[in-house]
Design goal:
486 residues; Peroxisomal Thiolase, Chain A, domain 1; OB fold (Dihydrolipoamide Acetyltransferase, E2P); 2 domains; nine-stranded mixed beta sheet; 12 helices; 28% strand
């Protein structure tokens, strides 16, 4: 069903943080001054742990896409977000490192708009050429405490490969327009967005700027509005997408799940997160319209091909949503997002400074979590030393085989909970993790939850912030172990 040599989506994956905050807990915390929030206190919103950000979520979404498959054909990596950790250091480079991709490719950061995600995907779909692209949108927008944004926002990431081989959703048409319509903004030195009045944004923004772009895209695709099966559009305002669909003559009830009850609005990543969820269940021949709004509109018309059923992500958006760890301690969420400055004591004053020289020298091991396998005895060790650590072997490390550990099944060998050392989410769980290929190493264990740890418990590795240098504002990334399912 795909057009000959047509460009399109060849793979997809998604990630939503495991941590979810009960919206009723947020409303309860502010009831003394904002009792109206109670009406929005239904469901849960995803929030980043202290060691998660837009880079770590992007890596996890791309790993979900790969699901053990190689991404060696990727020649371009694009990361879209409005909450990237670095302002003057290319964030997409971390994806190349963590995913173990070859360095001879192009990387690009896209931001500064809620359309960042759809713009990045559209650019890859229309770029031409035979280079396969990895496009990842990742975001965790912040809402000011006691605002409707805080209670409705969420976090998440979606990843797509775009190319000409193995297309599962082909591009039929697209259109974009630009307009300096200011629905909200965040200045360079501000932490939170400033929003204008909802009715104005809906009536003058969405209802007037979106339809022309959609009409142009459908005309290019030679598709009637009544033939659209899925309408994918993210908005922090309820009812907007249904009203737009009706105005544009689309069938009722085709609006994609906004993921509101279990995730929340994840900013510039949300339209692509919704798209990834739609692709999990799309049938061959179904037409999908994806819209991005923000100082204009992007409209993308896709059609699922006969190959749509051949691709499966690791967990997909549905699996990530199901893997939830629910919390009701509102101050936990506020602390993780550095919205409150707690007194952690003198142990928290330990200086943390990344040795950039050693980080560069050990980039092969640290970035993609690569161990060494002794060519003589087969011992797998991390970190890789100058010699084999197995007693009686001591073979030189020069001949070691490079073995990635990130996707190797693992389990708990030993564990302990440390309440004395400083940790942003006490206690600090550490222990030895036994990998199926024989590697064994001491690791930090994240998001243990109330169930605790047990010897033999299945674990998976996740890309996280190892330490945060608050003085210089620099996160140091590494890999941690976490229970396979909450």
């Amino acid at each position: 069903m795909a057009s000959s040599n047509a460009s399109g989506i060849t793979g997809f994956g998604g990630y939503v943080p495991r941590l979810r905050m009960e919206r009723s807990a947020i409303a309860a915390a502010h009831k003394w001054m904002a009792p109206s929030l109670r009406s929005q206190g239904k469901g849960q919103r995803a929030f980043c742990s202290w060691d998660e950000d837009s880079v770590t979520m992007a890596v996890e979404a791309a790993r979900d896409l790969a699901a053990g498959r190689k991404l060696g054909g990727v020649g371009r990596v694009v990361l879209a977000s409005t909450t990237l950790p670095y302002a003057d250091l290319q964030n997409a480079s971390f994806l190349v490192s963590a995913l173990g991709l070859q360095p001879n490719l192009r990387t690009l950061d896209v931001g500064h708009s809620q359309r960042a995600g759809t713009a990045a995907l559209l650019e890859a779909l229309t770029a031409g050429g035979d280079t396969e692209s990895l496009v990842v949108a990742s975001d965790h927008p912040r809402g000011k405490p006691a605002s409707t944004q805080e209670i409705s926002f969420g976090a998440g990431a979606a990843a797509f490969t775009v190319g000409r081989e193995g297309v599962i959703a082909e591009l039929l048409g697209s259109s974009s327009n630009s307009a300096v319509f200011v629905d909200h903004f965040r200045s360079e030195d501000s932490r939170y967005d400033y929003f204008w009045e909802e009715r104005w944004i809906r009536d003058e923004g969405y209802m007037k700027l979106v339809p022309p772009a959609v009409s142009a895209a459908l005309a290019q695709a030679k598709v009637a509005a009544g033939d659209v099966k899925h309408l994918v559009m993210s908005s922090p305002f309820k009812g907007v997408v249904a009203a737009l669909g009706k105005k544009m003559g689309m069938p009722a009830g085709i609006e994609a799940d906004p993921l509101e009850d279990t995730c929340g609005y994840s900013g510039s990543a949300h339209a692509l997160l919704m798209l990834a969820a739609v692709l999990e269940k799309a049938k061959p021949g179904e037409v999908i319209v994806v819209l991005g709004f923000g100082q204009g509109c992007d409209a993308i018309v896709l059609r699922a091909t006969d190959a749509i059923g051949d691709f499966k992500p690791g967990r997909g958006v549905s699996g990530a949503l199901a893997d939830a760890q629910v919390h009701d301690a509102y101050l936990r969420m506020l602390s993780y997002d550095r919205g409150i400055d707690l007194e952690w004591g003198m142990r928290a004053e330990k200086p943390v400074k990344t040795a950039l020289t050693e980080q560069w020298r050990s980039r092969g091991q640290l970035g993609a979590f690569v161990a060494g396998k002794c060519a003589k005895c087969g011992q797998v060790q991390f970190p890789q030393l100058a010699y084999c650590i197995k007693p009686g072997c001591n073979a030189p490390g020069a001949g070691f085989e490079q073995v990635p550990l990130a996707d190797v099944p693992a389990k708990v060998l030993t564990h302990t909970a440390d309440w004395l050392s400083y940790h942003p989410s006490p206690p600090l769980y550490v222990g030895f993790v036994q990998f199926e290929n024989g590697a064994r190493l001491l690791m930090e264990m994240a998001e243990v939850g109330t169930a605790g740890l047990e010897v033999g418990m299945p674990m998976r590795t996740v890309y996280r912030i190892r330490e945060l240098d608050k003085v210089r504002g620099s996160p140091r990334y590494f890999w941690k172990a976490t229970p396979l399912q909450a």
